[in-house]
Amino acid sequence: MERRLAAILAADVVGYSRMMQADEAGTLAALTSRHKEILQPLVAKHHGRIVKLMGDGVLVEFASAVNAVACAAELQEAMNAANAGLPEGQQIVLRIGINLGDVIVEGTDIYGDGVNVAARIEPLAEPGGICVSAKVHGEISNRLKIGFEDLGEQCLKNMAEPVRVYRVSGPAASAAAMRQQSAPPSKLSIAVLPFVNMSGDPEQEYFSDGITEDIITDLSKVSTLNVLSRNTVFTFKGKAVEVGRIARRLNVGHVVEGSVRKSGGRVRITAQLIDAARDSHVWAERYDSELSDIFALQDEISQAIVAALKVKLLPEEKKAIETRSTYNPEAYEQYLLGRDYQLRLGTRNLKIAIRFFGRALDIDPHYARAWAMLAISQAGLYWRGGSKEPGSQRRRKLSPWIRAWPRRMRPRAECWRRRAASTTASRNLRKRFVWTRIPTTCASLLP
């Protein structure tokens, strides 16, 4: 096993999913152009290596932390220049995280905490901004004409110890901040913070996290709302931070927070909507019911938030919020358990996730979200060498679930089955992250 010290740059496109929904072909063409004309020349100039492109993200390796930060600063400046004159919805804006650490080398790919910390730091950056770990900050010293703002120690997901994080300040950061402040908000912006697990059992975290994710998903179906992504808001999970400070950090006008208590066959959800500018409650409610009514509760909470924001739902938006991939609470709970393990990554966790998604499909073979996550987990397992099972063998294992579908639904189910079973899709995924296009193929299956 080869190891080496490397500076890792992880970058992600802000609002990628929204851009793909609005104009898939145009977004892919613009990203390809930026990769060729901006990213590749700058990485070569600073002696880096592009490890992999992942749809809306990129992972780059440098031998020097100084080169990594210099490249990131120039990359943000070049992206700002390329965005000049474009409508807000067509601008490609990056968040960048950089870490210095030990990595494991496997072929052309790299793994390990050095990579993981960079990926966890990246969501802490503002749109158009750069965040670095304390190790990178210590290496830079006075070698570059940029400043740093100390964000303090941050508890990053699946990291045993807090990591001290610094925000880069300088020409690129200033330009991005000015652009963010000067652009008039075209939509109401809202952040749904992770709901607190009040069950007294840490093993129930998966359920409160799942409720949060589903409320984010429901609100994102409302065209007049700009809802922050799960990855961004979950950086605040488990932290006691003032709502006003979070809102300023995320540049949102409203914040949703709450708690979930699950006991036996009952669930209690408390939710509140806060006006960040006034630090005052716009709406608050407590819901107490049987676990079998969880889907009705989610619909009610999402629609109550929309009503409190004085937003009028279009008929198709209301229908989209009320439409679920499953109405079986047992299948839903198995799905949430699988999703919890899938997000932890690692071969062992992915194998456990696949078993939970399989149980969800045993209960409800129509469950499209379980099919989607099963497909992605199978692909992730294949990347890591955790599955050498031929695609044809996996097809035979998945076929009983397909036969349980009504005849009219089988072509759609087959779409996901082929991707869950196909080693070819897994290979393509490793090369170009083609999964980003799959939801548009089977969009009607997703909630």
Distance between the termini: 42 Å
Which strand-content bin applies to the residues? 15-25%
**How many structural domains can be distinguished in the coordinates?**
3
Task: Give the second-level CATH assignment, the architecture of the largest domain.
Answer: 2-Layer Sandwich
By CATH reckoning, the class of the largest domain would read: Alpha Beta
CATH superfamily of the largest domain: Nucleotide cyclase, GGDEF domain
Low-confidence stretches: 174-185, 421-447
Cα shape: globular
Give a short account of the largest sheet: 8 strands, mixed
Mean pLDDT comes to 79
Summed up, the helix count is 18
Category from helices, strands and their pairing? alpha/beta
Q: Tell me the number of strands.
A: 14
CATH topology of the largest domain: Alpha-Beta Plaits
Radius of gyration: 22 Å
Helix percentage: 40-55%
